[in-house]
Write a structure and sequence with these properties.
By secondary structure, the chain is mainly α. The protein has a domain of 97 residues: Helicase, Ruva Protein, domain 3 (Orthogonal Bundle), CATH 1.10.8. The protein is 71% helix and 2% strand. A two-stranded antiparallel sheet has the order 1-2. Strand 1 and strand 2 form a beta hairpin. It is globular, with a radius of gyration of 23 Å. The N and C termini lie far apart (67 Å).
Length: 205
Amino acid sequence: MREVSTVEVFANLSKAITNGMALFNDGQRLPVEQGAVFADTIIEEYPHESLADVVVFLRRAALGKYGEEGWDGQTLKKGQTFGALTLAKVMEWWRQYLGEKAEALEAERTKANGSYKLDLSSALHPKVMDVAKELSEKVSVERAENNKAARLEKIRRTVGSVTDDGLRELYALHTAADERSIIIGEADKRGLLAKAMNQTNNEAA
């Protein structure tokens, strides 16, 4: 978008999405108007991703690599659309693609960092090593915070799609206070807390 107009970027994205839909069966293809919204969403919310990412994503989606994300993180019902694709389904699959991409980049970065340390650590001055250690610890903390944020976001996306029993399973599985706060909030929204409180009061009476 720095080199050409947003209109041209939108046109190229829309064309790539239309071409990508040709890889799906007739009854699976995303309606044209929703494809335009998908293109607009990419431009607004994912400006750092490339046109190539969209092309690769649609190819993988057509091959059935993505599906529903279970509460345990496993991908279920890969490639199943139950009719025409919807914008919500495509966005869910797109986020799964970005997760794959992030994991691959992290693996490459870790591999590269490991090689660098093996080659140079013995030649570094002790003071430089201290600074490197401090930076490494800072990166580890930041990575842990990012992982925590990603985990919480995953729980937020999951709680709305599970059954009441599934919500109870999530509560048993996730013991951290911030994780349980999200689950309790969903339970409260469904009226489960009030129901449990009334049941407790009735038993006490």
